[in-house]
Amino acid sequence: MDKIITVVFFGAMFGLFPIIIFYSGIFVNYFSYYEIKEYFNSFFIQNLNLYLYILFGLFSGIAFITNNNFLRFIYLACAILFCLTLIPSIGLNVGEKMFAKNARININGQNHIAKLIYKDNVKIYYKLKDNPKIQRLDIR
After folding, report:
1. pLDDT at 12
2. Which pLDDT value is given to residue 129?
3. Could you give the CA distance from residue 34 to residue 118 in angstroms, rounded to a whole number?
4. Which DSSP string do the residues of 63-116 spell out, in sequence order?
5. Residue-level pLDDT at 27
6. What is the SS3 assignment for 31?
7. Is there a contact between 124 and 137 (Cβ–Cβ < 8 Å)?
8. CA angle 11-50-39, nearest 5°?
């Protein structure tokens, strides 16, 4: 029972660090590129994949509890890969792959084809072809 609690505790701690760094790299490089004014905490909570976090957390807990250096090496390699989003070009590209897409949106009763830059539960940041400025549309 002690090992299970230890795996969950260490997994919760060590599983969260690389994920936070991953999203902070996207936040810093993608959001600053498009000049989106958001708070990191709301961005992080809106986009955190709980299944990935639980899976990575369990793996991290097991890697640090067992005496298996190979598992620790895999954890370290994953952490380094997650840190790559701190490089501006990579963070921007990953942000583009995750969030940017073309879509039809209704603005003041008119349909427009826009590039969605970021969408969460309450707002959409978009860019129209004829207006390069990023605009915000509240959807609630």
Report:
1. 87
2. 84
3. 10
4. HHHS--HHHHHHHHHHHHHHHGGGSHHHHHHHHHHHH-EEEEEEETTEEEEEEE
5. 93
6. helix
7. yes
8. 105
Distance from C-alpha of 48 to C-alpha of 34, rounded to nearest angstrom: 21
Q: Tokens 């299970």 map to which residue? A: 4
**Mean pLDDT, residues 103-117 taken together:** 87
- For the stretch 79-98, pLDDT in tens is 999 999 999 999 999 999 99
Predicted confidence band of residue 65 (pLDDT cuts 50, 70, 90): confident
Structure tokens that stand for 136 in this block:
């915000």
CB-based contact 75:62 (threshold 8 Å): no
Domain boundaries, the chain: 2-96, 101-138
* Selection from 47, 58, 52 nearest residue 24 by Cα: 47
Question: Three-state DSSP class for 139?
Answer: coil
Buried b (16+ CB within 10 A) or exposed e, 112-140: eebebbbbeeeebbbbeeeeeebeeeeee
Q: How far is CA 33 from the centre of its chain?
A: 16
Quote the pLDDT of residue 75. 93
